[in-house]
Amino acid sequence: MLSFSNFQFQVPGRGSVIVNGEIKNCERVLLSAPSGTGKSTFLRAILGFHAVEAGDLQLNGTSLISKTPAQRKVGAVFQGGALWDHMSVQENILWARQLNGIKDDGPVYDCLEEMGLLKVKEKPAGFLSGGEKSRLALLRTLLCEFDFYFFDEPFNGMDLHIKKKAVDLVLRFMSDRSSPLILVTHEAIEAERIATRHVFWDALKSCIQF
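-> structure tokens emitted (210 positions)
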């Protein structure tokens, strides 16, 4: 379970935001908010890449505040992918799995084929299209095991056919895991299929209640 207790961080141009509440294991929460509210800043604060002003963030009863980003075991899909551009498609995934402590290839190549990336598996990630980068970023995260997941606009640039496959993949992997998920997306159909709960972040308020 992920729990927030007066978890406070600064959003540039908007001031401080305070987060309270909890996300239970197996929950997939859709966080909706207007563009520019601070959703990506919230993700960076959870990951440990953005300063926290006050409060606590706990995962399964253990505080994450003093832990480094590497110690937090959060599986994040960023807008833009945050891929290793110099590595090939398959190297992005296989290296991430090694860092995650997974030594075998497992379902990697089956998933690459399912998402239409097998034919470009040796292509450097920096030369992929926007939609291909989104597919790779999502796959790279799903094919590793984390204590908590945060997907920030994971379906950017995907066509309808691929988005359906991507959602199927998310549901397949997450149904086998107890890790909670926060999903940020403007894709209404995909959000409705994935989310088990909906939280709205009012742009006029400086707080989020999970």
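The chain has a mean pLDDT of 93.
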